[in-house]
Design a protein that fits this description.
383 residues, alpha/beta, TIM Barrel, 3 domains, eight-stranded parallel β-sheet, four-stranded antiparallel β-sheet, 11 helices, globular
């Protein structure tokens, strides 16, 4: 019996399922889009590696351009992996509090520019004392709670107090301020932009308050995938902590310039009726959030009806997706006239016209036509 040993380049048909794989072409597309966004801006991308977990993928974005030349890491352990792989500009946008982890961070600072976020005096003093013991210097940024109601100082006055203490303590180097936002419900593009601007401005207000005390603020690290294109247009922001954009997900589907690169291959294990199919992966192998269920690549007529522990329930609307129609037209190759019917409308007419079909059938013209108002009521101007 042949042993199962998949490797890079293994054809999808030879993979056991369910299996997670990366679409490298999609990753490269996303990195190119990020590089283009920050090509001519003072603000640059600092990719968050909590999504990719790979030094190679981190370096690919740095090589593509548009970055500060470094990354964010969620933990000290991730920072160690990145530094030992050649990515030496590190920001840990979380609090590091235990002695062991602070000591490891201090040791790592001998190999790179290591920065960490703080939001209280006790943690700042601990970092200072251990850094002095290890004869090292750790950069510190003050985390500002701009939206998420978790870690971070709640007002600018507290940020000023911490900045004043940081510039006095040995072993630490005050570098700036940092804040993070997350996707919340919004009502359209204008609302997204305004929501992002309001949250990022909280961080900029803290920067201005600290600078008013004569303390230099080198770094303003704010924004994320949701606000990546907003942060770079706000004067004073120096870097964006983007993470999701690299691999993407259906929750960010409104950002069409980024492609979904993180994919799961599944096998259909059951077809209980003509419209329902069951796949061999469930929520233990797929991530999802609230009403944002996964999508099926290449099949616009198939939707995810339900996600169970180890199974996915798919439902078809019986209509052939555009991609399959295109393949059929190519196979027919002009040997017969091709008519398309079913869910044909003005919304998809342009796409259909580009794939070589000869005609369409639109039942809506007879059974669902819009009514015309031909009443004889007139509004006369008042005299």
């Amino acid at each position: 019996m042949k042993k199962y040993h998949p490797a890079a380049g293994t054809h999808l048909s030879e993979l056991d399922t369910p299996v997670l794989f990366l679409d490298i072409e999609a990753v490269e597309k996303n990195y190119k889009a990020a590089a283009e966004t920050y090509k001519n801006t003072a603000c640059k991308m600092r990719q968050h590696t909590k999504n990719i977990k790979s030094p190679l993928l981190a370096l690919m974005q740095i090589w593509a351009g548009g970055t500060v030349g470094g990354v964010c890491t969620a933990k000290v352990a991730e920072a160690e992996v990145m530094v030992h792989s050649g990515v030496t500009d590190i920001l840990i946008p979380n609090q590091v509090v235990t002695r062991d982890k602070i000591a490891r961070m201090c040791s790592l600072s001998r190999l790179g520019d290591i920065k960490v976020c703080i939001d209280n005096e006790e943690n700042l003093k601990d970092i200072s004392a251990i850094a002095v013991e290890y004869q090292s210097s750790i950069g510190v940024l003050i985390e500002i709670d701009s939206q998420m109601s978790r870690a971070g100082v709640r007002d600018s006055s507290k940020a000023v107090q911490l900045a004043k203490l940081a510039v006095q303590l040995p072993g630490v180097d005050f570098r700036g301020v940092m804040s993070h936002q997350a996707l919340r419900g919004y009502k359209g593009e204008e609302d997204r932009i305004e929501t992002a601007r309001v949250a990022i401005q909280v961080c900029l207000d803290a920067k201005e308050a600290i600078e008013a005390e004569g303390i230099e603020v080198e770094i303003v690290s704010s924004g994320e995938t949701f606000s990546h294109d907003v942060a770079c247009d706000m004067e004073g922001v120096t870097e964006v902590e983007g993470g999701t954009y690299a691999l993407m997900g259906t929750i960010y589907g409104f950002m069409e310039k980024f492609a979904i690169a993180n994919k799961v291959l599944s096998t259909i294990v059951s077809k209980p009726d003509a419209k329902i199919a069951i796949g061999d992966v469930g929520f233990r192998g797929l991530s999802w959030m609230k009403d944002k269920l996964p999508s099926v690549q290449g099949y616009n007529n198939i939707r995810v009806k339900n996600l169970l522990e180890d199974h996915i329930v798919l439902e078809s609307d019986d209509n052939m997706p555009l991609e399959i129609i295109k393949e059929a037209v190519q196979v027919i190759a002009g040997r017969a006239r091709v008519e398309v019917s079913g869910t044909v409308s003005l919304a998809n007419m342009d796409d259909l016209s580009k794939i070589g079909i000869d005609c369409v059938s639109v039942g809506a013209l007879t059974h669902s036509s819009k009514a015309a108002d031909i009443s004889m009521n007139f509004l006369l101007p008042r005299t």
